[in-house]
Design goal:
- This protein folds into 3 domains: 121 residues, Rossmann fold, CATH 3.40.50.720; 153 residues, Dihydrodipicolinate Reductase, domain 2; 82 residues, no CATH class.
- The protein contains 15 helices and 16 strands.
- Helix 1 packs parallel to helix 14.
- It comes from Flavobacterium endophyticum.
Length: 465
């Protein structure tokens, strides 16, 4: 009897980085691995972390991976059909160059750097797709925005206003502190948010700038059905997507970060005191108490307590809720020690906040996204508001991990299957990318609710702005 041996050709995906954002990404691809004939190689500096993410799946191999080990990096990229880099943004470029050398497609969730953009011509020459900004923000924001923008244009409409807000928050059932906030992502990014230059955007045809020291006192407000009221503060540069979205003629373009109402006003206290400064180190920070840290930003007084000095400095009434928020963080505790050597104010603040704002074991996170589209059609001004709320399942499959990782995984599979063909360094702003991915995301609870609302604008009566 003649036995025929059938060889099944697996397609190899190299995933570099197995951190928090990779959980849903890896699970999605493992779930698809049988029907799609996929084998995943998951590389991380921590072999144990990579092994945890593979869950002993027969179609996955965990390896200890050092991005700076050039020989290993080139070997693994050579073996892959496509490479997913979940590394910090500044580490992508060496991976990208190797992908050019060995003619491999590449996917990242990071912003396109100048160095990455410089590889565009080579990627096109080699017919390679280098998909970037395909996570949450940037990522899902691009795709969901371009879907509505393209639909408005297809009807003959002209976009005159575009606003987009996104935030990682704590789910309502896990919202247990006065700040209505817990860290759902990198705490350092939260502490340093808004620094590095003025926020810039355009409102009713006028360019606007908000310096960092005023950023958290200029907020927008929005209502999300079923979840209540939120506020948004401006992102650093809203203007860089003007041309990307084809909105050069838009009168208003504003991108911001979502928080619960009251957060920004309270956070502004840290900004005004100087606690978010990351430009210098503090003497004796290792032995400093939380109370001493707070006092170091206040003027000397022979008799006034730290509490009184802080109230006077921030012109705060005794019954102000912001006072209770500060007390909740233990900022006046003279027994708690900072314990960080040569630390900056921002690093110390991050440590203090992490004690209070870390998600508990059973806590869940929440992603909120809100777009506003103002447009002219048939001589009338109209508006569409689009909202999305995604809740996490647990501490592994968080809303953040889902919304960052799933689009990356879906794009990877679409590229492998030849559905995304356009070569070059790119964002997910074309229909061949965003339509199938947005559709599939709906089955994972990432659903946008679009509704027609009266056009509000900022200056409907054309008064000078």
């Amino acid at each position: 009897m003649l036995l025929l041996k059938i060889t099944v050709f697996m397609r190899h995906i190299l995933i570099i980085g197995a951190g928090r954002s990779a959980s849903s990404l890896i699970q999605y691809l493992l779930n698809k691995s049988e029907e799609e004939k996929l084998h995943l190689t998951i590389g991380d500096l921590s072999l144990e972390l990579a092994q945890r993410k593979t869950k002993n799946h027969k179609n996955a191999t965990a390896i200890a991976f050092d991005i700076f080990n050039e020989t290993q990096r080139k070997e693994e990229i050579q073996k892959a059909d496509i490479v997913i880099s979940m590394l910090p943004a500044y580490m992508h470029i060496e991976v990208a160059k190797d992908c050019i050398t060995y003619k491999k497609h590449m996917v990242t969730a990071s912003y396109v750097s100048e160095a990455m953009q410089n590889l565009d011509a080579q990627a096109k020459e080699n017919n390679l797709v280098f998909m970037n900004e395909i996570g949450l923000d940037p990522g899902i924001d691009h795709m969901s925005a371009m879907k509505v923008i393209d639909e408005i244009r297809e009807q003959g409409g002209k976009i005159i206003l575009f606003e987009s807000f996104c935030g990682g928050l704590v789910a309502p059932e896990s919202d247990t502190n006065l700040w209505n906030y817990k860290f759902t992502w990198n705490p350092r990014n939260v502490v340093l948010a808004g620094q590095g230059g003025a926020a810039k955007f355009i409102q009713e045809g006028t360019y606007k700038y908000i310096p960092y020291h005023k950023l958290f006192r200029r907020t927008e407000f929005m209502e999300v059905e079923g979840y209540g009221r939120f506020e948004g503060y401006a992102n650093r540069d809203s203007l860089k997507y003007k041309s990307v979205y084809g909105l050069d003629d838009a009168l208003t373009l504003y991108r911001g970060t979502i928080r619960r109402v009251g957060f920004s006003k309270a956070w502004n206290m840290f900004v005004q005191l100087g606690m978010t400064d990351d430009s210098y180190t503090m003497e004796d920070s290792e032995t400093m108490t939380y109370r001493e840290f707070t006092n170091s930003f206040l003027p000397y007084h022979p008799t006034d307590s730290v509490e009184i000095k802080l109230r006077l400095s921030l012109k705060m009434d005794q019954d102000d809720i912001k006072w209770d928020k500060l007390l909740e963080l233990d900022l006046f505790n003279n027994n708690k020690i900072v314990g960080l050597k040569n630390a900056t104010p921002a690093q110390i603040l991050e440590k203090i906040l992490t004690e209070s704002w870390t998600l508990e074991e059973h806590d869940k996170d929440m992603i909120v996204m809100y777009h506003k589209f103002g447009y002219q059609l048939d001589g009338q001004e109209k508006q569409i508001d689009s909202t999305m709320v995604c809740l996490g399942d647990d501490q592994t499959y968080t809303a953040m991990a889902k919304t960052v990782g799933l689009p990356v995984a879906m794009a990877t599979l679409q590229i492998l299957n030849g559905n995304i063909k356009t070569p070059g360094v790119q964002l997910p702003i074309n229909k061949e990318v965003y339509l199938p991915i947005l559709k599939e995301l709906e089955s994972y609870g990432v659903v946008f609710n679009e509704k027609q609302v009266p056009y509000m604008g900022y200056n409907p009566k054309n008064v000078a702005g």
